[in-house]
Amino acid sequence: MKDQHITQEIAGPDRTKTSKRRKIAGLAWKIVGGLLLLIIVSCSMSIDSVVQPSSVNGGDILPVTLNVTITTNTTQTSNFMVAVLVPKIWKAAQNSTITFTSDISSGDQGMTLIPAGTPAPQGGGLDWPTLLASKIGNGGNLLPDYEWVAFYSNTSYSVAGGATIHATVSIKIKTSPDNLLFKLGYCVANSTDGLSSTDRYGSAFSSCFQVNGTGDLIDFCNPQLSTVDPRTSLDNDIITVTFDGGVQSTPLDNASQVYLCISGITDTGDSLSVCTQTDQTKMTPLGLNKWQKDIWPRKLFNLTDNQHLTGLRYYFTDPTGGIRVGYAGGSAPFIYTFRCQ
Amino acid sequence: MKYKLIFLLVLCSTGFFACKPERLLLPSEPIKELSGNWQIIKATRNGTDLTARFDFSHFRILFTDSSYSIDSLVPFIVSRNGKWSFDDPQYPFTISFRATDSSAKTSSLLYPVTGGQRNLIITFSPGCSLNSYQYTLQKAN
Lengths: 341, 141
Prior knowledge:
Helix content of chain B: 10-25%
Radius of gyration of chain B: 26 Å
Number of domains of chain A: 2
Oligomer: heterodimer
Largest sheet of chain B: 8 strands, antiparallel, barrel
CATH class of chain B: Mainly Beta
CATH architecture of the largest domain in chain A: Sandwich
Order of helices and strands of chain B: HEEEEEEEEEE
Helix content of chain A: 10-25%
Largest interface: A-B, 18 and 16 residues
Number of strands of chain B: 10
Shape of chain A: elongated
CATH class of the largest domain in chain A: Mainly Beta
CATH superfamily of the largest domain in chain A: C2 domain
CATH topology of chain B: Lipocalin
Strand content of chain A: 35-45%
Distance between the termini of chain B: 71 Å
CATH topology of the largest domain in chain A: Immunoglobulin-like
Shape of chain B: elongated
């Protein structure tokens, strides 16, 4: 009862004044907060140029240099972040070294991998690889086997307001022995602003970069007439063979049905063929001249316990088997190698 | 007075015999019952649903007390008949299959009830270990 009385006293004659003061104070805080926010997040970055070779040999180290400009409006203390978009099979988290030099530091500055799961600043709880994939994208790589790998500088740096800083980032990634085409991606940012707006970070993608390695070409750059999913599998997996007739014109452009004509190559070098146009080899239409077939190689080729496949050679045919389409629409077969690493 | 006394005696004796000791039994987790013929109602590979794309309809696995037998094999954790066991019969987290003349292969196990039906969800790699398959099995009618 007493409390109520006191409240009433305050809310009595001075109510209008108090309310006005509160409104003014609230407005002032909003303005100050807004200005603070503008000041805090006023560090822009850009990648001015990327220096990288157009190709390397499989297993070699890929050297890349990024020339970066950082512009600040006020003092900020942050870690520098550099991320690369690479094929997963490179295992870049374990096989990369990133250092940089800059106007405000002396000598090579080391960088360390940011463990997956570490939340990115202003990233809504997402970690760096996930945030980079959603904000920066995949650079147009067509196979899903890529990843962003992010690094922080080992130390944080205080930068003065109104400064323009140049940094030179040196990236060294040991490539895998695989034969592949890939569009590499790069991103620079800092540990305060993250990827909060487009001028807070810099990004760049390369044109199609080639590794002259061994094995079947893994082509991330060009649409494929045929793909096999998963890319790594053994003969006791279920594998999905896809024919995408929309990629290029082939003799099967107007086919109402498409069949798989396939041979399994055993570890003893034997070739087992399944090339009759039956339900077993009939592909399922997905529309837009795209076809798909899920096969279990061990069953399809009736393998005994001692038989194992090392690879597949296959074509796509019409219902008569007379029209046959192979690699790049030609007469050579598509080739798939079973592997598990 | 005499009738009142008899009435009271009858009332007391009725009350006395109406009381029964309540035996409290601790609830016990039932043993997970696998006996019977199971079929695949859902299958995924690396998260991609293959149920409608690959013919799993003829696959059956018959569990008896400690043995299993497979009919119309599809890529599975084992490819031959043999023995099975839980890590813990009351609270199983894994199920092991030991095919004849082979070492045991173990899968994680979920045992939920969905739509009034008991499901058995197992996860394994029949081929390359980088590929993960998850099958949901339900008792076949």
